[in-house]
Amino acid sequence: MKNDVLVFNQYPFSVGDKIRIEDGRRKGDWEVVAIGEHKITLRCPISHKEFSWTKFCYLSSREANAEWPQSD
Length: 72
Hints:
This protein is mainly β. 0% of the residues lie in helices and 31% in strands. It is built from no helices and four strands. It has strands spanning 18-21, 28-35, 39-43, 50-54. Strands 1-2-3-4 form a four-stranded antiparallel sheet, with no helix packed on it. The mean pLDDT is 88.
């Protein structure tokens, strides 16, 4: 039987990537500062606080010439 299937892959981050998470508890702009086998460390460009989390992000779109970090 055939079905529609949603397939997800972890995004292959690089140190220095500037990312924007649109929803969830990690919402906001971040810079990738370290990548481990299981964890990724992100830094807030405003507060400069760093957080290491289990890899979690998936790419949903790319925006060329986007404002980063966003101002409210």
